[in-house]
Structures are given as structure tokens and as C-alpha cells.
DNA sequence: AATGAATGAGACTTCATTCAT
DNA sequence: TATGAATGAAGTCTCATTCAT
């Protein structure tokens, strides 16, 4: 009898204690992670919609359903939110680009890269919109911008070599046209809904194929 | 004698000050026009450089060498400066596009249009930069943006017809590729110095020609 | 066997957690006392270093190695921490002043009081620094300040009587000079390292002796 | 007749113009000067009363009868107000200390310096209160503090030489006592109304005289 | 036409304090 | 007893805009 009582007591006590004791480190860490993501996600949405300067911390907090103070519990400043968004997003984006296998591009790899680029843009339209607007209005971020650009240069070399291997008489010129096509397609996809992106992708790839085949023909 | 001269001087001075006389009115109107242009020019420079929100009226006034009060004498608000810049610039830009002669595009006219587009971009890079950044950070201007786009639609029809007349089997697809090329070239010219614009123009025109000739070949 | 040990362990643990048992109560009381002291000690250090307003509860909690919430478990407010520091420290300080034996000061007792004063200052420089800065920036504490001052008035009377008994022709004037000397020495000791405190003490005591002997001589 | 009319017109016009034309540079400069002084005076009062941190810009603006914004038109930050107060006041104070005539102190000059010191403290009690509190709670201002202290060192040398010339057997010790007396008197004058300052000054000077005469006697 | 002092709304940020766990 | 996420009031500061001159 006494035994049962003791057990009961222990149980009750342990329940009591569980309630009164602070959350575990894991729980806190989980809360922090989720809240940070919530804030960044909300901020990205507003930044992309209205621009960085036109978005106030109050708006972010309100839309995220938290107090302004809490946002500052997670980020030192509004600027830091922006920086973390750029960093996190660009990390996520660039982890998908990995074509530096052997330094040589096969036909397959080349078209894979093109398609990957379209995917990249299409899936992160909101981010790219923000990214563009930020680059346009902030001089502070120039270094970050450079580093993002520099990550692409190896790809350029690969493509140039690929064009040469395909018999291009004017590899630089062809690359200029191809990158202009990709740039144009990106801008169209990011900033307007004028063309359906699948159709655009199809036509652009066809155009690139024609450029490559033209070279062969002419040779 | 000396007395009269002095009086005369005074009189002249008072005329200068006087607003009523017809000649002064013209002069003042001229001054007003020049001041307005000065303010808009200065504002455009700062807006393009630092963004609309990051540019203060104080900065504009200081850089223009006038007082803040005077700026408000010419414009009702900072926003109005922006709007007038956009309006004035776009007017100036679009007055150059006037291909609605007979509804039919000759080869000459088509390439003239392409070249004109390059000129248009190249000569107003600062404006286009501002324009892009403004469109990116302000929802207020969406209507204005639409109206700018709509002005281009007649051109689209003309080009489409032209492509058909050139034997294009896929006029919509070809137009998509051509406008993508122009869009991409614009963005490259506006936002980077990576390619020299003359070279870019040459390559893009060549690419467009190839698209057109390809059609013929296939037919 | 192992099972029992485990059970035992559990039991022991549950005892530890249990608040009711007499021994634990004492232990917890001890813990509370230590924690309070830790918080006050930490706060005093930061307050004296950076000022009351410039020190945040976060800083105190972090430096003390506890959570903010716990600090509020021991003190109702940041202000209360300050008040308790002032109270506790002043109690500790004043408990050393106890010359109200018979209402008469002997030579020995007088110089003991002077030396005690130097000790008092020297051993609690940090506290006095805080005390001064707090008195300087808070009007709220004025009453407390008064009460601290009032505790000293009996001492004043004693000294005045002592000076008279030593044949002072101007006891109030002499007391003014002596207290000015002590005040000056206190300030120098608290706020600068310009003079070594032992030397300062020696010179001040010598000066006081001269004041007293001067009186005798003149009489 | 016409002549008179013209004159009249001119007068009227000039009045009109006078009313409408902006203030002259001199007028603006005068306004600025007065407003700055008003703000600094108000801030000094509040800083000295409640401490720097406990005083908000709102309080300053309200008490000065201006908007917060205007205060920032004259000072870049709250800190700058403090710095200008310290600088302006200390300049004003130190311009009165100028005893470096020939490097030698006569009796007259010595007592003049003592009296001057009392005057200096007495007339600027509010400033010295602020100054002390600022030194106590701000680490940033340490350099400024040093420079204020260093301005006094030549005076120290002069006094030391003076004491030697007066036959002091222990010039350093005597100086220690004298500066302790002055320090103590300063603190008493600044922070309490316990003694009337004239009486205090009299007694302190008498005490110093006794120190000097004592030396002679002993020699 | 022109000035710049002045305002006030609102931005970013901090921090004492509370509260669920 | 102990945690730290969360709040909200208040603080510093900026800036578009107004207004007397």
C-alpha cells in the first residue's frame, strides 16, 4: 500500500517538476530555429513586395504575428535580416550548381546546366526579385554581390570550352548571345508573367541548339 | 547727373524684381523651367545612385544648391519629383518610337527599330536603372508601369506580322526569343559593364538575322 | 541488488528535489542567500563600472551565469537590486562605527575613528564609487541618502565635544577643516590612484594632529 | 506728382519684398546661436539634476519648448549635446586660470589662486555636478577628462615651488594636505549646502595659512 | 522666388519585466 | 529553483513637409 502511494507521489511530483522546469536546450533551439525562419520568410515576402527601405520592422513583426522586440531578439538589426536572407538563400541556390566534375562539359551536362538555371530562377522568383532590388539600392552589399558573381565564372570557362569543342567559329560571340538569352529569360521570369516559363524555356533551349547546330553546318 | 544714373539703376533693379511686366514673366517662366529641370536632374542622379527611399530632400536640395523650401515650391512632394522624372523621361523616350506609319514593317524599319532600342537604352542608362529600382520597390507606381508597357503592344503586333511575312513558321516563338534577346541585352547594358555595348549590339543583331534567315532556309 | 541501488538513487534524487524536508529547506535557504549575494556582487561590479542605467539586467544575468528570470525570482526589479546593495553595504559599513559608548571621545577613540574611516573607504572603494554615482543620477534615492547622512550626526557631536575638550577656540571651524580633510581624502581615494592611500592617511592624520596641537599651543 | 507715386510704389514694394524675402544670414545665425544655447542650458540643467542617462531628449525638448526634431537640427546626438556642454563650460572655466606669468608664485598670487578656485567651483556648481557624474558613468570621455586634469599640472609645480620657497620641510606632504583640503571643499560646495561656502573658504584659507606659518616656525 | 528653422509622424532599437514551461 | 522566449513602453534619431520671413 505504501509502495503504491510512493509511486503515486513520485509520479505526481515528476509531473509537477516537468511543468515547472524550463524547456530543454533542444526545445529552445527548436523554437529559435522556427521563429528565425518565420521572421526571415515574412521579411523576404515584404522586402520582395515593397522593397527593403519601404518595409518597416513593425510591418514584419505584425505580419509574422510577433512583437517588434522579439524580432530584435533574433536579429541585431533590420539589415541583418536582409543579410541572412541573402546568405541563406544564395547558399541554398549555389549548392545546386556543381558541374565542376572533370572540367569538360558534355552535351548532356551543358543542357542540364541550362535547365538547372531555369529551375533555379523559377523556384526562387521572390528571392531573385529581392536580390535584384537590393543590389540596385544598396552600395553596402557590393562585396557580397561580387562574391555571388565570382562563383559563376568557372561555369563561363566551361561553357566557352564547350562552344569551341562544338566547332564554334566565334565562341565569345556565341557565349555573349547565349548569356544574353539566359539573362533575358531570367528577367522575364522574375519580373513578369507575360510568357509561361515552360514555353519560354523550350524556345530558349531551341534557340541555343540552333546556334550550336548553325556552327556545325557552317563548318 | 549722377543722381539720375542712380535712379535709373534703382529703376532697373525694381524692374528685375517686378513680376508684372511681360518680359519678366517670360524670364521667370524660364527660370522656373530651369530650376525644375535642375531639381529633377539632381534627384534622378541621387535616386539612381542610392535609391528613392535612401535619398532625402535635404540631399537633393543641397546637391542642387537650393533650399528645401524651394524644392517644395516646384514639387508638391518627393514622390511627385519621382513621378515627374518617370513621366518626362518616358515621354522623351517614347517620342522616338513612332513606327505606326502604315502598319507594315519593312526590313529597314525592323532593323531600325532594333538599333533604336539599343540607342534608347544606352543613352538613358541612369534613367532605366532608376526606373527598374523604382518599379521594384514601389507598388504605387504599378499603374504607371502598366501604361508604359501598353505603349509597346502595337509594336509587338507589327513585329509579329513582320516575322510572318519573313516566313516564320513559329512567329510567337521567334518573337519570344527576339524579345528575350532584347530584354537580356537591355539588362546587361543597364546594370553591368561586362560587354562593350557596340559589340553586344552587333552580336544580338546578327543572332536576330540568323533567326530570320533560318526560317527562310527551312522554308 | 543493482535494482535497489537504482531505486535508492531515485529516492535520494527525489529527496533532493523535495522542498518539504527540514534539511533541504536549510540548504535551499543557503542557496538562495548565495544566489542573492552573487547577483548583488555582480550588479555592484557592473554598476560601479558602467553606471546604473548603462547596465542591463541581461548583462547582470549573463555575468552572474544565471537567467534573467532567476534574477527576478530574487529581486522585484533592477532598482531593488540597487537598493539592496546600498542598504546591505551601508549596514555593513555602519556597523563598524560604534563609538557611542559613553558619549565621550578619548584621544585613542578619536584617532581610531579617523583610521576606521580611512579603512572604511579603502576597503569599499567600488561601493563608494557606485554610491556617489547613484546619488548623482537619481533623485529617487534622496531620502535614503539623507538617512545615511543622519546616521553620522551623532558622531559629529562627539567630535565637536572632543575638540572643545582639547581646548579648541573655534570647534566648529576646526571641525569644518577636519571634515573637509576627510571628505577630500575620501574622494581622492575613491576616484583616483594619484596618491598612495597609506601616505595620504599619514599626512592627513598629521595635519589633524597639528590642528589640535595648535590649539593647545595658542592656549 | 508722378515722382511721389513712384517713390511710394518703391516703398510699398520694398516692404512687400522685405516681408517675403528670407531672413538674412545674420538673422539665421543669431537664431541658431540662441537656440543652441537654449538647448545646452536646458540639457545641462536636466543632466545635472537627473543624470545623463536618465534624461531623455523628449524631456529636454519639452522643457526647452521645442520639438525633438529641432534639437537634432542643432546637435547630431544626445551625446553631442553633452560633449558641447563639457567643452564650452570647461573652456569658459579654464580661460580664467592663467597664473603662468613668470613661473614663480608670490604670496599674493598663491592666495589669489586659492580664492579663484573657490570662485570657479562656486559659480559653476551645476556644471561640476554634471561633470562629476559624467566622469563617473562614462568611460568614453576618459580622454577628455585627462586633458582637463593635465591642464592643472603646471599649477601643481608652481605651488610645489612656492611651498619650498616658504620653507616647507615636506613640500609634497604639504601639497597633499592642501590639495586634499581644496578637493574636500570642492566636493562639499558642489554636493551639499551643509556649510555656507564663504565660511568654508575662510576656514580653509586659514588652515592653509597655518600650514605655511607652521613651517616657518619650525625652521 | 527663396530661405532654413521648425514640426511631428514614424523609423529603428533597447530593455525591464512577464510568463509558459 | 530555473530558463529564455516574448512583450511593450520608451528611447534615439530621421526626414518629408510646413511656415514665417
Structure characterization notes:
Four copies of one chain form a homotetramer. With 219 residues, the first copy, chain A, is mainly α. Chain A has two domains: 2-81, Homeodomain-like (Arc Repressor Mutant, subunit A, Orthogonal Bundle); 96-218. Chain A is built from eleven helices and no strands. Chain A has helices at 2-20, 25-50, 57-64, 68-74, 78-94, 107-123, 125-137, 142-150, 153-165, 171-191, 197-218. In chain A, helix 2 crosses helix 5 (78-94) and helix 9 (153-165) crosses helix 10. The longest helix of chain A is centred in the first third of the chain and has 26 residues, at 25-50. Chain A is elongated and about 75 Å long. The N and C termini of chain A lie far apart (99 Å). The A-B interface holds A 49-54, 129, 132-133, 136-139, 173, 176-177, 179-185, 187-188, 191, 195, 199-200, 203-204, 206-207, 210-211, 214 and B 50-54, 129, 132-133, 135-139, 173, 176-177, 179-185, 187-188, 191, 195, 199-200, 203-204, 206-207, 210-211, 214. The first copy, chain A, binds a DNA duplex (21 and 21 nucleotides) through residues 18-23, 25, 27-28, 31-32, 35, 56-58, 66-70, 72-73, 76-78.
